[in-house]
Amino acid sequence: MHCPFCRHSDSRVIDSRTSDDGLSIRRRRQCPECGGRFSTIETASLNVIKRSGVIEPFSREKVMSGVRKACQGRPVTEGDLAVLAQTVEEAVRQTGSSQIDTNEIGLAILGPLRELDEIAYLRFASVYQAFDTLEDFESAIAQLRADHHRPASDPEE
């Protein structure tokens, strides 16, 4: 790590702390040349393989942006979207792979989005599960209804 003050090519770690979410480490460093102190944040890299074959770093903001479109007009807050994006990132990181396909990310979004808002879920699922016909929507709606009619969710139904 180059010193941001004198550009010396080395630095010494004087303190390390894990972030609240456990996904990154904050390191306090000191330059042996000028004595300047600075902080770095380290995360395990996670790359996304796009349909075009281009590889880019995973972005929670892109997850939020894609889901935000499905949530237009629904009672979903920015905070809800941020929690969903974090949940998706944690699920994707748990696969143990450093590279993941965009379609797998879309599929990882479906479960948490279904819990958040069923209409947004249907909108999003229609893209990522490639709904082609009305029957695809009817099947997804029938599954949602069946899940609502399970005794554990509402004993009176």
UniProtKB/TrEMBL annotation:
Pfam families: ATP-cone, Zn_ribbon_NrdR. Residues 46-136 form the ATP-cone domain. GO terms for biological process: negative regulation of DNA-templated transcription. GO terms for molecular function: ATP binding; DNA binding; zinc ion binding. A zinc finger (unnamed) spans 3-34. Residues 7-20 have a biased composition (Basic and acidic residues). Keywords: ATP-binding, DNA-binding, Metal-binding, Nucleotide-binding, Repressor, Transcription, Transcription regulation, Zinc, Zinc-finger. The keyword Zinc applies. The keyword Repeat does not apply. Binds 1 zinc ion. It comes from the Bacteria. Residues 1-20 are annotated as: Disordered. Its cofactor is Zn(2+). Belongs to the NrdR family. Negatively regulates transcription of bacterial ribonucleotide reductase nrd genes and operons by binding to NrdR-boxes. This is Transcriptional repressor NrdR. It comes from Microbacterium schleiferi. The gene is nrdR.
